[in-house]
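hey so u asked for the seq, here:
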Amino acid sequence: MQLFYNPNINETSDTFSFDKEESKHIIKVLRKKDTDILFVTNGLGLLFKTEITLASDNKCTVKILSFEKSEPSRFNLHLAVAPTKMNDRFEWFLEKATEIGIHEITPIICDRSERKVVNTERLEKILLTAMKQSNVLFLPKLNKAISFKEFIKQKKQGFQLIAHCEETDKKSLKSILKPNENVTLLIGPEGDFSEKEISLAIENKYIPVSLGTTRLRTETAAIVACHSVVFVNED
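ran it, structure tokens below
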């Protein structure tokens, strides 16, 4: 199934039109025509079966034939990850995490962060593309970049975890996770979290965890954490 996206449709919609960029892709690149069937999601768990009624590369219009609703997850996975020095590594993480089933991402700026500015618009496009390519019906929420100190003060529900490489008392991630529990997990930059940040997290009820016996890159650690949480919640 090839999946398309339109954020403005819901259960009450009868027809809608794609924007110019998406219309051009549908008509010129994919060579779709009148009466062809398209499957569309609004990124909120709804899958629409639609039929093209106007095959225009400026404003492709469809009518909705039917829709299905996918139930949301019984848990929420929120990863707060320090942006990597190389943009492509962070973008790779976003792509793969979307395929696996992440719900929310927040870029956090840490003491040892080498990259302190992120292009949110570009990252949102990567999430959208990954959602469509993997036939996921929920678009992950991408928050604006925030400092570690600001993020740590926000109240979260469920498990609050911080993964770091310091040789201190830590629990293994797999020993903590339980099905149907919300998880907020912090992943640091290439140089890891500072001792001050780790202490601050613990003061704010975050539990230090280990992701394994080897030292992982930021993006690898984030993927390992993402898969671990989703795996525990599989039926």
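Residues 24 and 57 are 4 Å apart (CA to CA). The chain has seven helices and 13 strands.
lmk if thats what u needed
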